[in-house]
Give the backbone structure.
Amino acid sequence: MTHCPADVQRLLADATHVLFDFDGPICSIFAGLPAPTVAAALRDYIGPLGIDLPGHIMSESDPLEILRHAASAGPMVAETVEAGLRGLELQAALRAAPTPHADAAIHQLHTSGRRLAVVSNNSDAAIKVYIDHRDLSGYFAAISARTLFQDPALLKPHVHLIIEAIKRLDAAPSRCVLIGDSVTDIQAAIKAGVPGIGYANTPAKEYSLAEAGAHAVINDMAQLIP
Ligand SMILES: [Mg+2]
């Protein structure tokens, strides 16, 4: 692990394709519609279905963890909760807070001739709404994200979404680099043979991303500007 910008630039110099996780590196999707509010709304969807909600799910604030729990009760429950989450993420996307310097990094990496993709556990619809809203759609050659009826087991840390992005970009994994703010991003990148750059907005994240095997860790998206 290194914090040295020169090493980030060396990783980028080898990369023809840059894969961005969405929530964190590009924006804070739940800045205006907080994640705990979304998680509570999803629990309300599950309640009438007669599904048991254990204590740790009652206090869970990550909507994707609620979706994973719903999926353990079967595909019908998963689809119901996914549809609810999809709608809430669409509302959240319009109130999301852009990550500082993310738009500039995306613009500059695209201008430098690299092909870019989003690889995210958030719904593809919410990502499209956000990047359209920010006038960023022209910069991304692919969006590999949660789709309708997708098995939550195929979300990161599973390698599936990264492999899909690489295929759609027609890229070699070793010539890609993934920017992610979660341990699960780095774990998925390693499984795909893609170097991972951690984006850490807290010292705790810096440590955990490095421990997970990030090739470098940045704390400002401006550090990606070539
Ligand atoms: Mg993230």
About this structure: The first strand starts at residue 17 and ends at 20.
